[in-house]
Amino acid sequence: MNPDIKNDIKNKDREPGSERSVRASDGMTASPAPQFTELRVLHVEDNEMDAALVAEALRKGGFSISVVVVQTEAEFEEQLRAHRPDVVIADYNLPQWKGMEALEVLRRGGLDIPLILVSGALGDVTAVECIKKGATDYVLKDGLARLPEAVRRALQEKHLLGLRRQAEEELARKAEELARSNAELEQFAYIASHDLQEPLRMVASYTQLLGERYRGKLDENADKYIGYASEGAIRMQTLIQDLLAFSRVGRKNSTSRRVDCDAEMAEVMMSMDLAMRESGARVTYAALPVVWADRSRMAQLFQNLIGNAIKFRGKDAPEISVQAEKVGSQWLFSVSDNGIGIEPQYAENIFVVFRRLHTRAEYPGNGIGLAICKKIVEHHGGKIWVESERGHGSTFKFTLPSEAETDRVI
Ligand code: ADP
User: Fold this and answer.
1) Could you identify which of 21, 356, 366, 390 might form a hypothetical disulfide with 341, taking C-beta atoms 3.0 to 4.6 angstroms apart as the criterion?
2) Residues 353, 371: contact at Cβ < 8 Å?
3) Cβ proximity of 57 and 144 under 8 Å
């Protein structure tokens, strides 16, 4: 054994051949591993000479080290706690124990410490097996010059793995926080809109009553003001009902089942018959798929999109086409019209609650329809968007997972 190392053996009062501690930091050279002033090594080895050679190789490779050498599982466990190593180096074959079993001990203790095997001879197959089982690397005893590099790489990998885990945990925490705050917000919107209805009903009915009882009995301005107040209250009632409808989408009462979109469209057509006849609209659809969805929400989705295509029509009678095609594991639906179109810069805005591009005098509505469509589609695991140019009609597109995919989504 190297005399420098021998002189430094600690725990001299212990049984010979049990645990030995070796300090080899005296020969510190040029470039130690950046994050360690002293690398703590736990070495599983029965041969003193081999232990000394390993320490020597690390020292030569630029590490300042503190090494504890152990031979048995009990010693290993004890030193894991006492020494808290940065790296474990283990001889593959020991008389009483196997180096790979040290991995089990690390795993049991939930310790993420790299383990490098050092062996006189390790066939390729065994080496691959060991790496698969979790050893970080292996070095042959007659190639110890490679050991410092193997240690550096192992430490670097551990560092990167730590960073990745940290980033993943952070991401998971943020996602959870976002989901919670969204749920709270939805709950708030639901409760607020629900509870506001009652006092608002009072305001609306009493202003209406005032209007009816005192029309012509006060001065002209009073009639006008009461009229404004009454209109405002009624309008607020509609907004609150819309908000409530919006916040109800995706609440627990929705049930998913197989929905034949062709059959659903036929029903939507019947319910929209009057609007279609008044506007002279022609709606074509064929071979729409069966999807796994909430039936009434699907009807609402088609109805909102077709209703808009009729409402925002151009000079010609509305020509509306509903189609679907399979793209990968999704159905891609499109609802296209020949209406007034949308300027591309508003393509995202129109899906936000109460966002509209026109006054109510131009086109009636509250700006909730597309927000509801977005919520329905997203609740079913899809996406919705519009492709349009002002004056050239619009095509609303949305995706829904195909039946095979839906079990995972809904
Ligand atoms: P609303 O119809 O009550 O205005 P929506 O949320 O359904 O509310 O639509 C938001 C806005 O998107 C509409 O005000 C309109 O400007 C635009 N829009 C929606 N559908 C169409 C369409 N098919 N063609 C042109 N513009 C549309």
Assistant:
1) 390
2) yes
3) yes
pLDDT digits (tens, 9 = 90+) for 7-26: 333 333 333 333 333 333 33
Ligand 1 atom at minimum distance from 357 CA: 16
For ligand 1, whether the C-beta of 369 sits within 6 Å is yes
309 lines ligand 1 (CB under 6 A): yes
- Probe ligand 1: pick from 370, 377, 394, max atoms within 8 Å of CB? 370
Beta strands in 56-103 (DSSP E): 65-70, 87-91
Whether residue 61 contacts residue 31, with contact meaning beta carbons closer than 8 Å, is answered with no
Task: For ligand 1, say whether the CB of 116 is within 6 Å of any of its atoms.
Answer: no
Residue 163 CA, ligand 1 centroid: distance in Å: 46
Calpha distance 102→43 (Å, rounded):
10
Ligand 1 atom at minimum distance from 337 CA: 23
Q: What does the mean pLDDT of the chain come to?
A: 86
Q: How many CB atoms lie within 10 A of CB 27?
A: 15
Q: What's the token pair of residue 227?
A: 């009229």
Distance (Å) from CA 391 to ligand 1 centroid: 14
- The residue whose CA has the least distance to atom 1 of ligand 1 is 367
Other Cβ atoms closer than 10 A to 37: 9
Q: 387: alpha, beta or left, given left = phi > 0 and alpha = psi -120 to 50?
A: beta
Given the structure tokens 């609209």, which residue do they identify? 281
pTM exceeding the 0.85 threshold for the entire prediction = no
| pLDDT classification of 251: cutoffs 50, 70, 90 | low
Q: Which helix (H) or strand (E) holds 119?
A: strand 115-119
